[in-house]
Design brief:
Strand order of the largest sheet: 3-4-5
Structural class: alpha/beta
Number of helices: 8
CATH superfamily: Aldehyde Dehydrogenase, Chain A, domain 1
CATH architecture: 3-Layer(aba) Sandwich
CATH class: Alpha Beta
CATH topology: Aldehyde Dehydrogenase, Chain A, domain 1
Helix content: 40-55%
Radius of gyration: 18 Å
Largest sheet: 3 strands, parallel
Oligomer: single chain
Shape: elongated
Distance between the termini: 17 Å
């Protein structure tokens, strides 16, 4: 499974590295709209996670971090819209100079490629990480807590679309065990 997702993320990273600002911003707005449009499905999936957490004796503070409702999903969508409004960092000249022979040297911001992110049971991080990676021209390899697996999968698989569209930049392995540790040393797709 990691090989397939890694190959998919690497292929997406190549497309995202050259995606236009307009395409990335449009994809972020479309993803935000999908979050709102499918909030009911996300809340239903989140209910499964919340029930499992409560049955497992998790503290109410942790359950609250896990819980999504339409208001929180609206905030997630708004966060994606805010990211779309940020300047595109790709290609930005950080500094530059001209050598005595006339050669111009510039340091520019470029995408990293595939960014792996491991995080706890806050399903809102799924859309936040996706949005930031997309805006910066990177593919996201996301691993959220198994406590939030239903919510994360509902968020990460919102959109059925062609694999070459900018929004399709997230690989979300369905791990329900400690296999995420293998992401730390998984360098075959860098």
């Amino acid at each position: 499974m990691l090989d397939t997702l890694g190959q998919r993320a690497k292929a997406a990273s190549r497309l995202l590295a050259t995606a236009s600002t307009d395409a990335k911003d449009a994809a972020l707005h479309a993803a935000a709209d999908l979050l709102v449009d499918r909030a009911g499905d996300i809340v239903d999936a989140n209910g499964d996670d919340v029930t499992r957490a409560q049955e497992g004796g998790v503290t109410e503070t942790v359950v609250d971090r896990l819980r999504l409702d339409e208001s929180r999903i609206g905030s997630m969508a708004n966060a994606l819209r805010l990211v779309a409004g940020l300047p595109d960092p790709v290609g930005e000249v950080v500094r530059g100079w001209v050598r005595p022979n006339g050669l111009r040297i510039e340091q520019r911001r470029v995408p990293l490629g595939v960014v792996a992110i491991i995080y706890e049971n806050r399903p809102n991080v799924t859309s936040d990480a996706f949005g930031l990676c997309l805006k910066s021209g990177n593919a996201a390899f996301l691993r959220g807590s198994s406590a939030a697996i239903s919510s994360n999968m509902a968020i990460a698989t919102l959109e059925p679309m062609a694999p070459d569209e900018p929004r399709r930049n997230a690989a979300f392995p369905d791990f329900r065990h400690r296999a995420a540790a293998s992401l730390v040393t998984f360098g075959r797709f860098s």
